[in-house]
Amino acid sequence: MSFTELKDQAIQLPLAEQRQLIACLVAVQTSTDQAFKDNLAGKIDDRNPENWVELDDLKSRLPE
């Protein structure tokens, strides 16, 4: 299966399965890429409100 076919199949998944796929891919990347893992952990642990994004702002940035 080509990458284009794979992307097309992923787009056709129900939203819940798309989220599961995203979580799976992030989990794979964090297990194999220490720099990515450290960067993601830093964002999660960030206690500075100046670096936070409001949920409504985030939703407006994401495609529906």
For the biggest sheet, the summary is: none
**3D shape:** flat
Q: Helix and strand string, N-terminal first?
A: HHHH
Question: Distance between termini?
Answer: 26 Å
Mean of pLDDT: 92
The radius of gyration is 15 Å
User: Which bin fits the share of residues in helices?
Assistant: over 70%
Beta-strand percentage? under 5%
The assigned structural class equals: mainly alpha
Poorly predicted ranges (pLDDT <50, ≥5 residues)? none
User: How many strands?
Assistant: 0
Number of helices: 4
What's the short version?
This protein has 64 residues and is mostly helical.
Task: Give an overview in words.
The radius of gyration is 15 Å and the shape is flat. The protein is mainly α. The chain has helices at residues 3-12, 15-32, 34-45, 55-61.
List the helices and strands and how they pair.
Elements lengths: L2 H10 L2 H18 L1 H12 L9 H7 L3
Helix pairs in contact: 2-3
Main traits of this protein?
4 helices, 64 residues, mainly alpha
